[in-house]
Amino acid sequence: MKRKLLNSQLSNMSTYLKYKRELIALAQNVFNYENMPEFIDISYLNRTLLVKGAIAFFKDEVLGVLALPFINSGKLDLYGRPTTIQVYGQNGYTKRLDVGEYVIMYDNDGRYPLYIDLLQSIERIANIKRIIDVNLSQQKTPRIWKTSTESEKTVKDLLNSYDGDVESVVAYKSAVLDDLESVVAPAPFVADKLNDALDKEYSEYCRLIGIANVEIKKKERLITDEVKQSMGGTIASRFNRFNPRKKAVDEINKKWGLNIEVAYYDGLPTSMKSVIENSEGVDSDVDISDNEKLEQ
Hints:
The protein is of the alpha+beta class. The chain folds into 2 domains: 14-139 and 189-296, Upper collar protein gp10 (connector protein) (Upper collar protein gp10 (connector protein) fold), CATH 2.40.500; 140-186. It contains 9 helices and 12 strands. Strand 5 and strand 6 (94-98) form a beta hairpin. Helix 3 packs antiparallel against helix 6 (191-209) and helix 6 (191-209) packs parallel to helix 8. The longest helix has 27 residues, at 2-28.
């Protein structure tokens, strides 16, 4: 029994780590940067923004424009922004910078690490998935066995052999068979409902990171107004993450004569106004027949 408990705990952890790797990578890679200085590692940039909430751009005399994490090493200004920072690299590189020597790019307008909220959503997604796994496993006929205390160990060995697909031979007059009784207690099938809950939790995660995800079930046509309404939260989340990046990019370009551009990989709008403008001249409903889903 202890082995089964350990295996269950390991499965729970491995499922959580799987979703953590996949969904964190998804959250990191929703933005596309053009004309970024070659020495800047965009993957490192994206992860730092997600985990720490901010990163500092500055110009090094030898390496050119860099983007590194930082700590506040001075006083704050009137709005709580740092006046002096200390940037640092993974190889021990460090440099002290004063106001005017750097530009801070934030991950969102709240200026906090979105990573904390994402972990909570990932934990819920992994938990639902494990419940689905358990419910599916319980669709095998559950067995509750009644036997004598003397035969308990023998019955456990038989059940372990059965679970491992190993054939067992038991003598007909064995006391184990005489004392053994099976009680069937079938578990209800709820995996379909749990899958709906999983889809909704995944859609909520996509909304949080700014990925459009319109879920449609048992419906052949979707009215354009419904698409707009369902994307309202996504557009707000997209603007929340896009706006500070665009503001920082404009300041970086002006300060060091660069031409960096930032946009979402999917090319979808970052404001509700753009959604309405893009839908002008389009039919009032969207046909999604032939088992197609509208997913953006």
